[in-house]
């Protein structure tokens, strides 16, 4: 599918005159329409709830949009829990899905009334000790090991991944939790990341539902919810077919009716923790060309760096690039698009065919609405950018200002002699 920016060059120029490049911009209308589609796709399940994975786009303005649809939040750290709290979420609207968890964060989650998702068997004791007993509701994270085959995946080898408990461990965990009076038990698994197929959730659901049935038949323990977690992907590349959330919801319904209903488990609630699918396509990094360099290759230097968008440097991830105003020009030139970091992996694109670019052109880097700003860092003293929300009426608001040098130096306040 052709990838089109959600802003025009003229709109970008207007925004830039107020907030200089680089910045991430998010399309509120796109996020809202997608939220509606997600809600609709799972409306067949009475207890359905999406817990938006905060790490994808940790901004209170975006979290509040999620709240409008009755969604909760999936948090993995103290700061994310605090973001949930200040954004008005509490109790079972918060899922705490963490791993290698610092002990005190269990208490912080518990004070908010969050559902704690236990990643490791040895953490059972820690949770019990930290909270002086188990909460009413507890979730456990499953890792079936081996390989999990779904096309186009980054992570398709659960046997090599650090998350979750083995089958033996999780059954033992449920027996312990059940015997200690935990009322509501949940099952969670995240096996494959960024799946661009409508088959992942239905396949995962079937795996987890079968475990739920086994647990009921062999141990007499009935689960209250199954959390399908994240992993529903987006088409970063123009030739990829976008997922159809309606088909995905239907596929999960089919597995539900075939596996859970006959086993008398028709009250099981379905939860999801999508991040990338919820916001990824509705964000872009807007950056200006400041350096055209010709040596052994052609380089286009922009004013953003991997500090603003780490995915290409970290995973070699593809992000489509549009030169604003040149949307319909032929892609005749081959460029590497780079940032200024003293790291040769600071490239947004390598050998990318693009229209002829001039200094001052504005590049629109697609699909930065998830794991974009949030993966930012400060290497080379590069500062985090602003975040801007484009409203459905095409007006725009600053939802996070750009960092300043003052922010960069704020943590040196222990050196009283520094002239800050
Ligand atoms: C990252 C993460 C998610 C969200 O994953 P996406 O692929 O962005 O949907 C959900 N749950 C957990 C526990 C995660 O770590």
Structure, explained:
This protein has 420 residues and is α/β, with parallel strands linked by helices. The chain has 2 domains: 28-279, Alanine racemase (TIM Barrel, Alpha-Beta Barrel); 281-409, Lyase, Ornithine Decarboxylase, Chain A, domain 1 (Beta Barrel), CATH 2.40.37. It is built from 12 helices and 17 strands. Strand 6, helix 7 (167-179) and strand 7 (184-188) form a beta-alpha-beta unit. Pyridoxal-5'-phosphate binds at residues 53, 55-56, 74, 97, 190, 193, 229-232, 273-277, 370.
Radius of gyration: 23 Å
Overall 3D form: globular
The CATH H-level homologous superfamily of the largest domain? Alanine racemase
Mean pLDDT: 96
Order of helices and strands: HEHEHEHEHEHEHEHEHEHEEHEEEEEEH
The distinct ligands, each listed once, are:
pyridoxal-5'-phosphate
Low-confidence stretches: none
**Domain unit count:** 2
Q: How many helices?
A: 12
CATH class of the largest domain: Alpha Beta
According to DSSP, the number of beta strands is 17
Secondary structure class reads alpha/beta
Strand content: 15-25%
Biggest sheet, in brief?
9 strands, mixed
The helix fraction, in percent, is 25-40%
The CATH architecture of the largest domain comes to Alpha-Beta Barrel
CATH topology of the largest domain: TIM Barrel
Report how far apart the termini are: 50 Å
């Amino acid at each position: 599918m052709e990838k089109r920016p959600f802003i025009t060059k003229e709109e970008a120029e207007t925004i830039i005159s107020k907030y200089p490049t680089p910045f991430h911009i998010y399309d509120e209308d796109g996020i809202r329409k997608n939220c509606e589609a997600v809600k609709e796709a799972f409306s067949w399940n009475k207890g359905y709830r999406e817990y938006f994975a905060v790490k994808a786009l940790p901004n209170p303005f975006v979290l509040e949009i999620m709240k409008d649809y009755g969604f909760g939040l999936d948090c993995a750290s103290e700061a994310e829990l605090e973001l949930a709290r200040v954004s008005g979420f509490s109790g079972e609207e918060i899922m705490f899905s963490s791993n290698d968890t610092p002990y005190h964060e269990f208490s912080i989650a518990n004070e908010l009334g969050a559902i704690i998702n236990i990643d490791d068997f040895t953490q059972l004791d820690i949770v019990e000790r930290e909270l002086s007993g188990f909460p009413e509701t507890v979730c456990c994270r499953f890792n079936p090991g081996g390989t999990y085959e779904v096309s186009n995946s980054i992570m398709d080898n659960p046997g090599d991944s650090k998350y979750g408990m083995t089958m033996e461990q999780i059954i033992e965990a449920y027996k312990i939790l059940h015997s200690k009076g935990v009322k509501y038990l949940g099952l969670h698994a995240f096996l494959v990341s960024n799946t661009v197929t409508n088959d992942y959730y239905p396949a995962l659901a079937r795996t987890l539902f079968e475990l739920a049935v086994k647990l009921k038949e062999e141990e007499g323990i009935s689960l209250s919810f199954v959390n399908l977690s994240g992993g529903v992907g987006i088409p970063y590349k123009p030739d990829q077919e976008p997922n159809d959330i309606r088909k995905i919801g239907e596929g999960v319904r089919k597995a539900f009716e075939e596996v859970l209903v006959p086993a008398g488990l028709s009250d099981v609630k379905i939860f999801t923790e999508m991040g990338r699918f919820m916001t990824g396509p509705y964000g872009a990094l807007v950056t200006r060309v400041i350096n055209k360099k010709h040596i052994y290759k052609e380089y286009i230097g922009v004013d953003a760096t991997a500090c603003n968008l780490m995915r290409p440097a970290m995973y070699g991830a593809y992000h489509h690039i549009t030169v604003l105003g040149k949307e319909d020009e032929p892609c005749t030139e081959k460029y590497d698009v780079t940032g200024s970091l003293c790291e040769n992996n600071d490239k947004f694109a390598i050998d990318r065919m693009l229209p002829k670019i001039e200094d001052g052109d504005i590049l629109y880097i697609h699909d930065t609405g998830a794991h974009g700003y949030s993966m930012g860092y400060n290497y080379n003293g590069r500062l985090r950018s602003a975040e801007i929300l484009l409203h459905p009426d095409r007006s725009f608001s600053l939802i996070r200002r750009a960092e300043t040098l003052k922010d960069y130096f704020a943590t040196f306040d222990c050196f009283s002699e520094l002239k800050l």
